[in-house]
Amino acid sequence: MRQFIIVYLLCLSFTAIAQNEPDVQRIINQAIENKVKNDPREVLASYTYDVYEKTVITDSLNGSTHNFFSEKVSQLQFTGDQQFSENIIGYQLAGFKNPRYEVFAVNVQSRSFYDDDFVIFNNRYAGILSTRGMRNYNYSVTSSAVNGDYQVSFSPKKPKKIPGLTGTMTLDKNTLAIKGVQVRITDKLNIILNQEYTYIEDANIYLPKQRELFLDKGSEDRKLSFFKGRISIGTIENEVLEDMVTRKFLVATTRMSNYNVNKEVTIPDSKYAITFKEGASEQPESFWQNYRTTPLSSKDERSFSELERIVNAENIERRLGTTNNFSIGYFSFDAFDFDLTYPVKFNNYEGLRLGLGGVTNESFSKRFRIEGYAAYGFKDQDIKYGIGAGYLLDPDKGAWISGTYNSDLEEVGNYAYLTDRRVYSLFEPRLVNITQFYKHRTTRLNLEYRLTPQLLSELQIAHRRLDQTTPYRYNNDGNIIRNYDISEATASFRWSPSNKYLKTENDIVPVYEGYPIISGQVSQAIDGLGGDLAFTKLAAKVFYRVDRLNKSATEFLVEGNVGFGDLPITHLFHAFPNAPTKETILQRFSVAGVNSFETMFFGEFFSDKLLTAQVKHRLAPFNISKSFKPELVFISRFAIGDISNPEDHLDIGEFGSLSKGYTETGFELNKLLFGFGTSLTYRYGAYHLPNWGDNIAFKFTFNLKL
User: Fold this and answer.
1) Predicted local confidence at residue 15, as pLDDT
2) Domain coverage including residue 303
3) How far apart are CA 349 and CA 438, in angstroms?
4) What is the mean pLDDT of residues 462-466?
5) pLDDT class for 544, splitting at 50, 70, 90?
6) Is the domain of 470 the same as that of 505?
7) Is position 113 within any domain?
8) Could you count the other beta carbons within 10 Å of the beta carbon of residue 586?
9) Number of domains in the chain
10) Do both 511 and 564 map to the same domain?
């Protein structure tokens, strides 16, 4: 009987404890559901507040000076239509006379813990209060004895697969709104983050009040750098620059004040994510004293003179400009940027091609530019060249008017978008395999104009004289022609609706690149004004990428082209073939392209109506060692097309139209050694070739990030 009573009492006590402990699943689910009531972006029509932020990078928390020091005061505004916009009204960047705008483009920390993903210094983590968080976090909840608020502890379930945060958050006992967050991470990046909120009684909402971020690089080999374009290839290092920007500790303190809720407060150019008030870099000491909660320490003050001495002595500003330009394919020398795509090329028609060219930079003129190049092909023994100039009509709209003249080669069937972004690689993958070119002498007049921050446009009027490099002739309504003139107008646009931009005095800098990216183009040639042919060409493409927290990604690319009128083969469309016309698999071993059909032979298909689609799925890198992290990518491609009047194309040999649908699939194993990898692709379906080996493309890949 006594034993029964003891067991009974124990059961009662456990039941009482269980009843007193909050239901973890219920509270977290309810907090996620209440986001529509608690997230200021969901509840408020608009709100603004001032932000003071101080950031330092240093090797020792007790040293005499910092290695990086910045202060910033900004006005942050949120509206339902335009999202966040930040107007920087004051900033100091110790040591630098000229503003380094890339510093302000670094995402040190996400603004809201209600987001599905949370970013700390460009590292993404699963959001702590999201549906995704429910799948990826372990939660435990206790009630505070003081006021009844809930203290929620969270930690990632699978930190090696899905990066997550570890820490606690305080939820309001009534609304389950976030009142405070403390994050502790001990990993490649050691992070301590504390964020407090203040209650806005009129709106019944919590807004950020202050945050402190301490980041220790720990064993992470990536550099804590606010400057883009860092170069590290093998043993090549810029030691002084590295010492300047890659120290061990980062400390950022932020204070918010002057809240305005549901009031119409307009920040100029709020369509941009970040803007600068005129004179922001020249604010007096009295301005800073109004926003600092504590005076600068003696270490802070010494950093200004010491960093200025280092920057001047080592010419850091110029070297930063050089490294930034190098990452996009330019080498700066005084007022001229040499274009690194010109010096060395190779293709089947020219053989080895050596050249030199570039464009003037802002040191020459902020409104006027001169560009040019010259190249020589050792196989065709011919000189190619180009020259041009441009004038900046409106810096706010990126409106450039320019004129150029070129005498060069162009690939048969290539149709490039005017607004495509410049992509720099140490070499161009497809170029070494291309076999069909035509010569052209082209005079162009271009107008570039940014209609909105996310919408680029360009208009071109051109006259081209085309000369064939093969025996090709074209039957133009009974008139057999070999060489011809084309007078053509082209309008192009690129829309990136998810992108966010920083607006400077003379430039627009991307701070976030999202998807989709949509491009469109229309070209009209006329039989007149020096032109021999009349045709219309339309093109559109959509690119979308899904990045996941486990470092895997999936890419989709769909493109459609259509042309009608007098279209010689030079102005038909191809699907970017990349298979050399050689007999065996090993003879065709070459470099794989980025979006090309690896098993499709050059000159095998031409179309005046063409649709292509590509899917790439990248697995998370294999973390074999610190320096060996290969990546596996699965790829599938499809193309379908047609052509009208193929009999009008003479002396070119037989080619297909893709009317049956072309398919290939394969994989890439990238970054095996010094950026090199390998790929294997197989051709199947309606255009499968009788000889099994002709359907296989075995190539090497090259992926090196500068």
Assistant:
1) 42
2) 23-320
3) 10
4) 97
5) very high
6) yes
7) yes
8) 9
9) 2
10) yes
Residue 573 CB burial class (10 angstroms; 0-12, 13-18, ≥19): buried
CA distances from 521 to 458, 543, 545 (A): 9, 15, 22
Percentage of the chain surpassing pLDDT 90? 53
Query: Where are the strands (E) in 513-608, listed by range?
Result: 517-526, 535-547, 553-565, 577-579, 597-601
Is the same domain home to 207 and 356? no
Asked if residue 3 belongs to a domain, the reply is: no
Q: Which of 278, 299, 320 is the last residue of a domain?
A: 320
For the ranges 19-23, 240-244, 582-586, 694-698, the lowest mean pLDDT is seen at 240-244
Residues 425 and 441 in one domain: yes
| Residue range 555-574: mean pLDDT, rounded | 96
Residue 565 and residue 621 in contact, taking contact as beta carbons nearer than 8 Å: no
Q: Which of the listed residues 267, 296, 320 is the one where a domain comes to its end?
A: 320
Both 28 and 134 in one domain: the answer is yes
Query: pTM of the full predicted structure?
Result: 0.86
In whole angstroms, what separates CA 103 from the centre of its chain? 16
Tell me the residue type at 182. Answer: Q
At residue 25's C-alpha, the angle toward residues 24 and 27, to 5°, is: 65
Question: Which residue would you say has higher pLDDT here, 574 or 332?
Answer: 574
Q: What is the pLDDT of residue 7?
A: 45
Q: Which long-range contacts (CB under 8 A, 24 or more apart) does 378-387 make?
A: 378/350, 378/351, 378/352, 378/353, 378/354, 379/349, 379/350, 379/351, 379/352, 380/349, 380/350, 380/351, 382/350, 384/355, 384/408, 384/409, 386/357
More confident residue, 238 or 604: 604
Query: 10 Å Cβ neighbour count for 630?
Result: 17
CATH of the domain at 621: 2.40.160.50
**Number of C-alpha atoms within 13 angstroms, CB side, residue 605?**
28
Pairing of strands 577-579, 597-601: parallel
Do 651 and 691 lie in one domain? The reply is yes
**DSSP 8-state secondary structure symbol assigned to residue 528:** S
DSSP codes of every residue in 339-351: ETTSSEEEETTTE
Q: Which residues contact 286 (CB under 8 A, 6 or more apart)?
A: none
The reply to whether 2 falls in a domain is no
| Cβ neighbours of 5 (radius 10 Å) | 9
Does one domain contain both 686 and 613? yes
